[in-house]
Please model this.
Amino acid sequence: MHKINLDLKENSYSILIEENIIENAGKHLKSLKLGKKIFILTDKNVSPLYLNKLMDSLDDYEVKPIIMEAGEHLKSFVNLTKICNFILSEKPDRNTTLIALGGGVIGDLTGFCASVILRGINFVQIPTTLLSQVDSSVGGKTAINTNAGKNLIGSFYQPKIVLIDPNALQKLPEREFLCGYAEAVKYGLINNREFFDYLCKNEKKIKNKDVETLKYIIKTSCESKAAIVEADEKEKSGTRALLNLGHTFAHSFEKETGYSDVLKHGEAVAIGMVMALKFSIELGHCDKKDLELVLEHFKNMGLPTDLSHLNLPANLTKTEIEGNAQVLLSHMCGDKKNENDQIVFILMNAIGESFLSRNTKKDDVLKFLEQNLV
Ligand SMILES: NC(=O)c1ccc[n+]([C@@H]2O[C@H](COP(=O)([O-])OP(=O)(O)OC[C@H]3O[C@@H](n4cnc5c(N)ncnc54)[C@H](O)[C@@H]3O)[C@@H](O)[C@H]2O)c1
Ligand SMILES: [Zn+2]
Model:
């Protein structure tokens, strides 16, 4: 078993990575001294696979499952209200526990519910997608979506423990696997060249879902995220913002494609990281060789690399290109990470050497987007 400790003083917790940990969850929860009542929030796709196994391991508790539909639309005020009202009707106390069993959608929604019920009840993460195992289950960001945008209502609320079963990935649809994989590669690009090289060398094993390779990828990703979160839990010093490598571009592409299945978040992040790298080269920070390595790896793995995924019509006129670039730029300016109306970008000096740039000129971004829309 791999164990990573995330040190946040009184909010510290462990991340445990082990095959079949879901069916042994009860054993790992014992030391947390949780109250008798446990609610498990999961979705329709995950519940047939893992809910019974998890419930069987929780014999010592009074367990109630809450099974939701699946999909991003779950992260809503309506569901927040429904879940909170149901749990309140069951007379919880401060020792009551809410377990998230599922991907990042379930994790974000469950964490937010746990943070507001009685001003905070116990929260446990059991992530079942690669994205949630390498990213969203660690770090304590919780959120729901509103008409104004994604993740604009939420809280920082750390789980008591994160239990990661790499075997869950065997049943994950390939497209979802790749979306999570993009977020894993991100750690290599941010500050771990060695990890990026490992990923390039092990493409075949990753594609074959070799469990030891997956465990190593999850462990390294969680260690990277834990270190960044420890340094800057609430995104105050800028260190945590490094995790947004590729995301300023990605959010704008996602908004343009209506947060739909046309372009999933991880795919947008893959394209966004390529764009961040290209933009870094354009601004003279980074060498072209690094871009070639990333493009080759993404292509070998089946990740998208260019804006053709935005489904814009072919043969755009110059005016149309300028218009589209302007729209993408305006999406970026609405990003909540921007400070004083300047675009905050994570740029790269090289693979494994990213940095925060607060004063990127809008004109430079516009010109760059126009070049890439041709
Ligand atoms: N809190 C954070 O720090 C953070 C970070 C990144 C992303 N997020 C959020 O995460 C969400 C995306 O998470 P996601 O990519 O995990 O999507 P998801 O939760 O929608 O899961 C993707 C799909 O896979 C299914 N699924 C889950 N586990 C499965 C398994 N083991 N086998 C088969 N199918 C399975 C789900 O039912 C769903 O249909 C977004 O809402 C995003 O905003 C949060
Ligand atoms: Zn992301």
